[in-house]
C-alpha cells in the first residue's frame, strides 16, 4: 500500500492506494499513466473509521483493481472541514464526485462500508453513468425519516451543535494514556480483536507530550439537521442502475437484511451474509474478497 493525497477544490484528501503516484495529485494528467489495464475501485470507509479499514482487502483485490481508499474529511490523515461546517451528508457525495472527476475514468467501482456505503449508493443514483458496480458493506441507503418528524430533527440537530460549542475546549483536551488504551477502546466499541482494528487505530490517533489523542473531528458527533423522507430514499434506490453487491454481517445491523419485496426495489442487487458483525470486512476479509471477485466476474468487471 502507498500513501496518496488527492487535491479537491477546497480539500486535500489523504488515503491509501495500491499503486505509487506523485504527492499530491492535483490534476488528471498525474494519474493518466498510472490507472491503466485494470478497473479502478474507490473504497469509502464508515463514520469515525479511516482508509486503513480496508487494508486487509488490498492484497488480492489489487491483483484485479487499481485501489484507492480515502480518508473522508475530518477522518484519518485528511484535514477537518472549515470551522463553520458540520459535515452534512450530501457534502460527502460532493467530495466523491470531485474525486471521481479527478480520477478521470469512464466508470469506477465503488466499495463502501457503513456511512461510506450510503455515500456510494447516493452518488451512483445521481451519476449512474459513472459507476460500473457497487459493493455495499453493512450499509444500503441513506437514513430516512417521516416528513412530520422534520421539526424535532431540526431541534435535535441544533441542540447537538450547541452542546458541541459549549464543550469544545473539554473535548480538545481529552486524551489517553497510551496507544494500547485507544486500541482497547475501539475493540470494546466495535467487538473486534486488537489485530483486526489496529491499522484503523494507528491511522486514527496521534501522540503529543506523552498523551494520545483521536484525530477525527469532534464535530462528527453532531446530529443531522435533516433527513430525507422514505419517498426520497426510494427515488434514489430506483435510480441505481449498476449491479449491487450487499454484504451484511451475521451479527451486524439486522435491519439491513432485506426481504424479497425490498430487494425488488433495486434494479440489480445480490445480498450475501458474511461471518462477523458491523465490520465484517475485518472479521472475514478473505470471504469478503472472494465475494467481491465472484460478483465482479459475473459481469466482466475484472481485467485478467
From TrEMBL:
Residues in AB hydrolase-1 domain copies: 39-284
GO molecular function, one term: hydrolase activity
SUPFAM superfamilies noted in UniProt: alpha/beta-Hydrolases
Pfam family, one: Abhydrolase_1
Keywords of this entry: Hydrolase
InterPro entries in the record: AB_hydrolase_1, AB_hydrolase_fold, AB_hydrolase_sf
Name listed for the protein in its UniProt record: Alpha/beta hydrolase
Organism (species): Photobacterium pectinilyticum
